[in-house]
Amino acid sequence: PSFTADEQRGLALENLGYYKIITQNWDVITRGTLYSYGSWNLNINPRYYRRYHFQGNIGLSIQNFKPLDAPKTMTYNFTWSHSTDSKARPGVSFAANVNVASTKFNAQRANSPQLNFQNQLNSSITYTKDWSKKNKPYNISISANHNQNSVNGLTNLNLPDVAFNINTQYPFRKKESTGEIKWYENIGIGYQGNSKTLTSFYDTARGIGGQIVDNLKYGAQHNIPITLSLPPLGVIQISPSVSYQETWFQQKLVRSYNATTLKDDTISLRKGLYTARQVSFGVGASTRIFGMFGFGKNSKVKAIRHEIRPTLSLNYTPNVNEGNYYYTKVSATETRQVSYFENSGIYSPYSNIRNGGMSFGIDNNVTMKVKGKGDTSAAADKKITLLDGLSINSSYNFLADSFQLAPIALSARTNLFEKVNISAGASFNPYQIDAQGRPKNRLVLKDKFSLGNLTSANVSLQTSFKGGDKSKKTATEKLNEPNNGLRDDGITQDEYQRDAAYIQNNPAEFADFEIPWNIDLSYSLTLSKNFDVAQASFKNNITQGVTFNAAANLTPKWKVGANGSYNLSDKKLGLLSMYITRDLHCWQMAINITPVGLSRSFSINIAPKSPILRDLKVNRTRSFTDF
What we know:
Largest sheet: 27 strands, mixed, barrel
Strand content: over 45%
Low-confidence stretches: 484-490
Radius of gyration: 31 Å
């Protein structure tokens, strides 16, 4: 254990632990922290492992928080991760990743500024079985999910979610075909079925059991796609399709006008099993167009290639849901047509409007080929991507009486010099607006050359640079490596999260002097436009933010670093952590400071560099919390 100090909890003996092997397949790690003001933490982490079959770990954390100026609170956190070996039962898998906690658990964690702001918890338990290895074309997946918001105390449960699929079958093909395949033999039919059961509750309110029963909703959906793969017509690929979809609802909802309140707030629920269906027909066409521009023999750039990928599809959806809609009075002068399945909670109702339209889009890719340095062979040529993609997409409904053209979406992405990732997007309303900000049934393009009125846009940039050996990874890069909950090196998810939080809060102890400098930057900008009726113009709402992580060697033995975020729109500093470290040959001194945020702290640590002796250290830690 180590000694620390906390403004709200007092002096602490932190991470006092005990390890016990229970059987050859089970062990348990127990850790605890004691504070002088009466608070305490307890973490129990049993682990199990059966070679070639399964492995997992369970975590139970209890926080007894007794601050000086507030009542005592007891919070909990339960975690469970489990995975199976794919060779144990081929075609069958079971996985679990559960994380459930009390509303204030993360906010009251000591010395964890990143976790203090984590207000979303998620869990999933999944069982899948695939019969393809037995030459059967179907599979099933059964899952349970949990989503928890620790800000408002809302918990959503999905228990269970069952998905059953049948792979595309070709009923007109012979078991043993000879010669060329006839066009009708490429007609394929499949099945996709899904059933859901949802409920929710607030853990800040009483009667959780009653909330779960009252909020229970269920339903199912079936989809039967029919496809036909035709031979290419020259350079164009044609793909016709037919789809039948049916949804089962648990209730019908009927609204009626209340003459007393002058609102449509009277609701009648009819419980039962109700069905609705929809049919759609479509045909799609796609192709690829290439263009090449070559340069002279003495040029370093050999050629630039431009690839264009246009797509076009026609679709028709008839109105087969007229009987699922009714007219209701919503005000003293207005009547509206609404669906019986409005606000069903799981599946949205089908539209009662015929749709016969066209979807279209175009994507672009630009690459450049340059000569390799010091090598004249073609194998040494280097391919550089100038533009990963530049696309524009929209659709047009021929059967609509107005506003046939849908909003136009524009997106772009590229990677400059393999160092700077850039992505951007924008949405345009192609119709003009009146003085009240309402769209008029007249295209902007009729009066000026423009895609329309910009409604939203976003830009994000990420880059990373470092000196020295590029193959060496910083501590942050190691943390961002994929982790499936149960690592190959035997580290469990609980231990990994504990180590990750410690590294994030104490980066000075893990500084690598062989990397002379490194910097990671990311920038994001989001723009939304809202119409201001008073000024008869659009008002821009811009949100900008920057996050950074940087470190540099002042001398071969001294290193400094910092990481944090800054909100450019509000001109406010978010999380900020700084550190300085000194290489003392076999030992290392580290100073970590978090001066702003919900949890502020500093620590001074002197410890051996050897991982085996790292716990033999001199440490001084102080924390200051502002709830």
